Structures are given as C-alpha cells and as structure tokens.
Amino acid sequence: MTKGTSRALVLAGLACAGAGCYSTAPMSVEVRNASSGRPIEGAQVWIEAINVTGPLSLRSALGIPPMPARGVAKTDSFGRATLTYETNDPMRVYVIMDQAPPVGVTLARHPALSGPTSWYCMFPESESNTGPPGFAAEVRFLPGEP
Questions:
Q1: Cross-strand partners of 86
Q2: Alpha carbons 42 and 80: distance in angstroms, whole number
Q3: DSSP readout, 46-94?
Q4: pLDDT tens digits along 56-95
Q5: What pTM does this model have?
C-alpha cells in the first residue's frame, strides 16, 4: 500500500465518522419465565453505554454528539421491550423486576450487527433471589423492528 493510499483511507474513515457512520438501530429485549416459557410483563430494561466519551475522544474531535447515557423501557404483554441505541458501541443491559434482584448483561455488539442471541438464564435459584422458590428468568436480545 502506498503512502498516498494509506492517507486516502485514513481521510475516508474520518469523513465517514464525521458524516454519521455512527448509527443507531432498534434492539428488542425479551424476558420470560425460564420454567414456563411465559413472557414477563412489566420488567424494566435499562441500557447504559460502556464507551467513554470525553473531550479527548474521537467523537468529540469529530464533533459527533455522545449517545444518551441510558435508555429505559418496560416489557409489554409479550415480554418484549424495544429501545433504540448505538450500533457501534458495547453496552450494558440491566433487567429489573419485582421477582428478583437486578441483573446486568454486557453486549459487545448490537443485535442489529450480530443477530439474535441465545436465551440467558438471569435469575437462577439462589439466596439473593427474592422471587418464588425455583423462580428463574431468561432474557435474549434481538434486532428490533423500526
């Protein structure tokens, strides 16, 4: 690769970032009872950014506004909550419900890029589980519908 080609690729990458190649997409989170498979309605789903956005970050240098620190939604009667979030940054997703303590899952990639995940068991029976005996919940992440 020549010096001119390398410079052109760097400039193209910076132009892409400045033009909005940082995009958002909807993400659906489904929560269900692990034993019965029934959806859990009313669970709160929180998303937090893991990336660091400061005055010396690439985002700031390119004039790209930071993503909101947090997104919040509640699951509907199908056990699904949909939030729109940054596709290029890792995120921490928390599920909060009455039956169990809050649990967080780290996603390195947005489901719009990586596809649906498997079901994760979130609340196995333990001393910290405040739900009924044997209660466990599962969660999975899917690309959301626009």
A1: 24
A2: 9
A3: EEEE-S---TTSHHHHHTPPPPPSEEEEE--TTSEEEEEEESSS-EEEE
A4: 555 566 666 555 556 889 999 999 999 888 777 788 888 8
A5: 0.69
- Whether the CB-CB separation of 133 and 124 falls below 8 Å is answered with no
The answer to whether 142 touches 25, Cβ cutoff 8 Å, is: no
Can you tell me whether residue 37 is helix, strand or coil? coil
Distance (Å, whole) CA 101 – CA 34? 16
- Partner residues linked to 33 by β-bridges: 137
The gap from C-alpha 67 to its chain's centroid, in whole angstroms, comes to: 12
Question: Which DSSP symbol is given to 118?
Answer: P
Q: What is the CA radius of gyration of the chain?
A: 19
β-sheet bridge partners, residue 105: 93
Q: Give per-residue pLDDT as tens, 8-22.
A: 445 455 444 444 456
CB 45 within 8 A of CB 72: yes
β-pairing, 80-86 vs 24-33, is: antiparallel
What's the rounded Cα separation, in Å, for the pair 97 and 106? 18
d(CA 137, CA 97): 10
